């Protein structure tokens, strides 16, 4: 959610028709030989009328199901309705239950074996409370920041619920083969992204490292200028790491537009 605020949790105030769930949950370990990514819609919030950017706009929130030979890896878990004062700030809001979002992708709560949140704001990690004893990968800096800032998130739903199984990491980590956690600080001190090796190629799930794919294209171009020794605008340090990873696609949590390498390389 917007960096200018501490967090943006929501309540369900707008009805939305869910996609019909599949009748049988897929047996991921039997069918998948390469990780597959399924974006899932977890809701939206509304920018305040007096906001500097996009006043009155509905901002989507997307989580990602990664179907892996070892099971389902979930990147972000949707909303918490706390803290309440943020609910009022970002009305009207739609909060889709994470179990409903998972069912639309053919899965259930118990199918999820590992979780990572891009950061601990309550629109990205508020559904953690539904996954007791499921390992949740979080940067140590992110957890420390969340514990130090009273208004940053709602810890009873994000990290301090009964049965929480936090896996604190520092820097990059590979929870499963073909899935890598990469730090992308900025929006929050411990923000992290996920790099997934799919059959089509390497895909980055960048959470809220940036708000929009156009922001990524802009920073990437600045990095290209820097490599060429040309004057350029500033860009986040982690852009260079993404350049090394050379993904075919980059997804963001608050933008349904996707950065695609093929298009970028087609520009003459």
Taking all residues together, what is the mean pLDDT? 90
CATH topology: Metallo-beta-lactamase, Chain A
User: For this structure, what is the CATH homologous superfamily?
Assistant: Ribonuclease Z/Hydroxyacylglutathione hydrolase-like
Sheet having the most strands: 7 strands, mixed
CATH architectural category: 4-Layer Sandwich
Strand content: 25-35%
Q: Which outline best applies?
A: globular
Instruction: Report helical residue fraction.
Output: 10-25%
Could you tell me the radius of gyration in angstroms? 18 Å
The CATH class assignment is Alpha Beta
Structural class: alpha/beta
- C-alpha end-to-end distance: 35 Å
Concise synopsis of the structure shown:
This protein has 268 residues and is an alpha/beta fold.
Plain-language structure description:
The radius of gyration is 18 Å and the shape is globular. By secondary structure, it is α/β, with parallel strands linked by helices. The protein has a single domain (28-266), classed as Metallo-beta-lactamase, Chain A (4-Layer Sandwich), CATH 3.60.15.10. The chain has helices spanning 28-31, 84-89, 98-104, 122-125, 140-148, 155-158, 213-227, 238-245, 261-266; strands at residues 36-46, 58-68, 71-75, 94-95, 112-116, 135-139, 165-169, 173-176, 179-183, 192-197, 202-205, 249-252, 255-260. It is built from 9 helices and 13 strands. Residues 3-31 have low confidence and may be disordered. A hairpin with a 2-residue loop joins β8 and β9 (179-183). The strands form 2 sheets. The protein has a 7-stranded mixed β-sheet.
